Amino acid sequence: MAKDMTLLWGSGSPPCWRVQIMLEEKKLQGYDQKLLSFEKMEHKSQEVLDINPRGQLPSFKHGNIVVNESYGVCFYLESQFKNQGTKLIPDDTDQQALMYQRMFEGLTFYDKVAAVIYYEYYVPEGERHDSAVKRNKEALDTELKLWEGYLQKLGAGSYLAGPSFTLADVVVFPTVANLFRFGLSAQRYPKLGEYYGLVKERPSVKASWPPHWLENPKGDEDTLKDV
Amino acid sequence: MAKDMTLLWGSGSPPCWRVQIMLEEKKLQGYDQKLLSFEKMEHKSQEVLDINPRGQLPSFKHGNIVVNESYGVCFYLESQFKNQGTKLIPDDTDQQALMYQRMFEGLTFYDKVAAVIYYEYYVPEGERHDSAVKRNKEALDTELKLWEGYLQKLGAGSYLAGPSFTLADVVVFPTVANLFRFGLSAQRYPKLGEYYGLVKERPSVKASWPPHWLENPKGDEDTLKDV
Predict the structure, then answer these.
(1) Which of B57, B51, B82 is nearest to B69 (CA)?
(2) How far, in Å, CA of A14 to CA of A23, rounded?
(3) What integer best gives the mean pLDDT of chain B?
């Protein structure tokens, strides 16, 4: 079905996972794919650089067309396969507007999560400060309260932009899954916990669940235990 | 024409400028608007918080619909006013794919510019490091070479995704304009210089040129002189 598509990806990376969920939702299974290792620096290999001069995953090709940015792939596939699989942009104006708003807030959400989880990866040893770590955690806390409030307002069983699963869920769910993998408390954030429970059972999400999470179901659960 | 729209904005801010260009391109002039001052912290005023709990500009309302994220506003307006003003998403598959790719690379581009220009604004005094400043400048240099290469490949007179002006230009041009405002050398980056010269003459861009740039045509031209 999707033999003319190639995806190079890394396990657990939210940008890669977005694309994988998207391909499942649009019934584009059967694409060529290769799991690469960030630890072994395979995202800087020639194979990746040939598609993606930034040396990043995901790297995605459809025939001769290259789209590597995860949000870009989502928009591209929804546009090219509008009438195939799940319709991911609602016609309803209010829902559509909310979807766009949440999608792009989702980038800030991911940045704030990454600033806490990957602090030591991003910041060289001699430049680390306890004050920055504290500020990043406080910013994440503020961010989490925003999303908890959004879900609260929409009511039980809702997706991020209303009653249907949309592009907002495709791009934001991998961030939410990483939060719980790294020990976020569903007691403290019950609406995010419910949302996580709802979407993780979705076939597209189950089919693309990070393989190293399956092998090792417990993550670094101490990382976010005090957030 | 667009009396049911309200935009709260700040002068020179790329996210605000994107929305202003978008409104011009879609022939939505006549909207309610209010210029607020970042220096006076007016983006944290109740007036903004009522629309945007993040206390950020732009803050945008269309009737009862709120979309504050600049990329979200662009997608929303293009979808709602598809047949009005400039068509900003090309039908051609290759151009459309390139547009999506460049739009989202545009976020990285802006982040790398901001990390250099606003370093002292973002990083508290006790956490600043020469090594970080140097790394940020090198990252910006690498980023600029990528965009210079993209434009080189497309040829003279091209927009970011090919022969027509698209959403990619709406969102990325304000970043490019800031680069030159802060002293980027058009000798060193001639293709970016040409692109800047092309798009700054566009009516939508002229109509939305930052008022404090008009008052004070010289920016902090030393900031990027050695990039």
Answers:
(1) B57
(2) 14
(3) 96
How many angstroms separate the CA atoms of A199 and A175, rounded? 12
Whole-number Cα distances in Å, B77 to B27, B34, B98, B126? 11, 19, 20, 43
- Whether residue B69 and residue A146 make contact (CB cut-off 8 A), yes or no, is no
Rounded CA-CA distance A82/B66 in Å is: 26
Cβ A66–B101 below 8 Å, yes or no?
Answer: yes
Quote ipTM for the complex: 0.96
**Which A residues, 158 through 217, put their C-beta within 8 Å of a C-beta on chain B?**
none
3-state secondary structure of A96: helix
Q: Give the residue ranges of chain A where pLDDT is below 50.
A: none
How far is the C-alpha of A32 from the C-alpha of A19, rounded, in Å? 13
* Nearest-angstrom CA–CA distance, A64 and B94: 9
DSSP-assigned letters across all residues of B144-180: HHHHHHHHHHH-TT-BTTBSS--HHHHHHHHHHHHHH
- Tokens linked to A112: 């704030």
Model pLDDT, residue B227: 84
| A80 reaches B (C-beta below 8 A) | yes
Q: What is the pLDDT of residue B149?
A: 97
Min Cα separation A217/chain B (Å): 32
Residue B101 CA to residue B104 CA, distance in Å, equals 6
CB atoms inside a 10 Å sphere around CB B42: 17
Distance CA B168, CA B18 (A): 10
Give the pair of three-digit tokens for residue B202: 């566009």
Q: What are A206's two structure tokens?
A: 């189950």
Tell me whether residues A97 and B76 touch, CB distance under 8 A: yes
* B34 contacts: CB under 8 Å, gap ≥ 6: B6, B7, B8, B9, B47
Domains and CATH numbers, chain A: 5-80 (3.40.30.10), 93-215 (1.20.1050.10)
Residues of chain B where predicted confidence (pLDDT) is lower than 50: none
pLDDT of B134-154, one tens digit each? 999 999 999 999 999 999 999
Q: What pLDDT is stored for residue B141 in this prediction?
A: 97
- The 10s digit of each residue's pLDDT in A167-210 is 999 999 999 999 999 999 999 999 999 999 999 999 999 999 99
pLDDT for position B113: 97
DSSP designation for B226: T
